[in-house]
Specification:
Layout (H helix, E strand, L loop, with lengths): L3 E7 L7 H14 L4 E7 L11 H4 L3 E2 L5 E2 L2 H9 L8 E3 H14 L9 H15 L8 E6 L9 H14 L3 E8 L2 E2 L4 E2 L2 H12 L6 E6 L5 H11 L6 E5 L7 H7 L2 H8 L12 H12 L3 E8 L9 H13 L3 E8 L8 H5 L4 E4 L8 H13 L4 E4 L1 H13 L7 E2 L9 E4 L15 E9 L4 H6 L3 E8 L2 E2 L4 H7 L2 E5 L6 E5 L6 E4 L14 H18 L1
Helix pairs in contact: 1-3, 1-9, 4-5, 5-6, 12-18, 14-15
Length: 539
Amino acid sequence: METKYIFVTGGVVSSLGKGIISSSLARLLLSRGYSVTIQKFDPYINIDPGTLNPYEHGECYVTVDGHEADLDLGHYERFTNIQTTRANNVTTGRIYQSVIDKERRGDYLGKTVQIIPHITDEIKRNVKALGNTGKFDFVITEIGGTVGDIESTPFLEAVRQLKWELGKNALCIHLTYVPFLKAAKELKTKPTQHSVKMLQAVGIQPDILVLRTEVEIPAGMRRKVAQFCNVDPRAVIQSLDAPSIYEVPLLMHAQGLDDMVIELTGSEVRSQHADLEAWNNFLRRLREAKEVVNIGLVGKYVELQDAYKSISEALLQAATYCDRKLNLVYIHSEKLTEADVDEKLAPMDGVIIAPGFGQRGIEGKFVALKWCREHNMPTFGICLGMQCMVIEYARDVLGMTDANSTEMDPKTTHNVIDLMDEQKSISNMGGTMRLGAYDCRLKPGSIPAEAYGTEMVKERHRHRFEFNHEYRRAFEEAGMKCVGENPETGLVEVVQVPELDWFVGTQYHPEYSSTVLSPNPLFISFMKAALKRAEKKEK
């Protein structure tokens, strides 16, 4: 069948969950036998979110091909089990950069370069890039921001043109907010009506409306919305608050969202029924889990939980498949000291030492790691968390009291974490990063090798500094083993202290590859170790 293009726009307020609706629709279409991909178009001028503070934009997600992407791509992968690439996330910055590069090369033959048609044509080219591969029946494109934002205007104009050009092969789903005024005890549809009118004013008639609400919207009110917004009453769908984001596909399916999309795009019906057996199994275990597992996450961005979104979701998935209810406790590494570490960590069953960049909050991570190591707490260090494991071990076990990373202290005499020689001559910060999926060979019998069930894995990276190979023998002799390395470069990827029950650090980010239907094995292994500790405490 011809590729169909679905555009998901938002109105009234941000953070309504366009990414969750897009991911839920993708899950439903996959369950009906179609091939699907999702892409995110972000209106900000940054080339990518790689240089954004997590407080600004939440977690920076990384694709297998090494692109730093919006956190919604994490939702896409967790819901669909499909790996995304750089083609799945495009920003205004990338669009303008591409157009300016073409202008400098003379590709426009001396013409005046304008937003229309040059910027909008570049947006359209990127929208259709995945569809033109011939691999997908549906390409779902989420437009970031809200209708009415100045930044979104070129994207909406591109959507208008594509809807006109593609006819029945394109449709628009508009997500809006229906507030409930407690004082008046009334739901209000006027914000939705205004939002749709703004969309119509730029030439786009939405085909389906999804109404975010905290209160059930009566059928009569949904018909009113349909009438005022020129939408089929069947195509007005409510999205009530759900106990878990993973319930949303079922809520959308119950209201026929997938059926409407198939019907409105004139798509051949591959399957009358959605195959959601594995998805429902996960949700059943999620709902039925009663016993709690307590995991502490030590990091410096804990005020904004989206900063660790992939980790929190990977932990939720692992806990669910272990039939436990996750209680994730965020512990601010800047505020963690030797005076209160026992009080904060003793109630935990397992501890995550979070990734990040820079000096701030790092001493609190060392305090946490020393306590965890001395109390045999199941501990998982990820990226900078793994590097902190190495530094703390060097200081307290190897006696190198000033051991550090040259990221934190360029003058340290024991640079156990350092840049590789070939990185030191590169001035562009992005040029020194190791990004994307790399091979890792695991030592037979190690915890990671046992967890994965194989000695060769491929996981994603986002870091600049490395374990200094010159210190490897000293660490191994002192009890911290290097149990994973890149087969091409010999760079250390995984460390483990075998004398402890579960004390593992990974230079890579295993959370990026953890999905609802395929939870990451290392998180499952960590969760099982945490449960063993919990059982010991209960006895």
